[in-house]
Design goal:
Blueprint (H helix, E strand, L loop, with lengths): L1 E8 L8 H14 L4 E9 L1 H12 L7 E5 L5 E9 H10 L4 H16 L7 H20 L8
Parallel strand pairs: 1-2, 2-4
Antiparallel strand pairs: 3-4
Helix pairs in contact: 3-4, 4-5
Length: 148
């Protein structure tokens, strides 16, 4: 499978082991039939993501992720913007570790590209279960050090 994953940091946050995340994202995508993966993850603060939300989606609310999906069929192609501030706040609100909440949101973007939705209650339930499986997949890999 052709895989190209880039990480752009617009805050002081950075992944400690980009390769581990890239391998994990490739495995998540492959399990759901992806034939190619081209992703760019931009990590930013609330204000930057709010500006994107207002400009491109006409939403005036804070969010944890925006996925700009140009995927075609089983070939994932997307730019994904993530607010690190929202990840921290949501991790605390939902009693999750920062790492697991980050994994959930990163997987969420990929799953949208693979056709998973989250508009209806049933879609949300399926999305959440699939996110959970992706998080588990990350943790079954040899993970001798923290990655974030």
């Amino acid at each position: 499978m052709k895989v190209d994953i880039a990480y752009i940091y617009q805050t002081d946050f950075s992944l400690k082991n980009e390769e581990a995340y890239s391998l994990w994202l490739e495995r998540c995508a492959a399990q759901h039939g992806a034939k190619a993966v081209q992703l760019a993850y931009a990590f930013m603060d609330d204000e930057q993501l709010l500006e994107l939300n207002q400009k491109y989606l006409k939403h005036d609310t804070l969010t944890d992720i925006i996925t700009f999906d140009d995927s075609v069929g089983s070939e994932i192609d997307a730019n994904i913007a993530i607010s690190i501030e929202r990840i921290k706040a949501n991790a605390q609100e939902f009693s999750q570790s920062f790492e697991d909440e980050l994994l959930r949101v990163m997987a969420h973007g990929v799953l949208h590209c693979l056709g998973f939705g989250d508009k209806t209650a049933d879609d949300k339930k399926e999305m959440r279960a699939t996110e959970d499986k992706c998080i588990q997949l990350f943790h079954v890999e040899p993970n001798p050090q923290q990655h974030v």
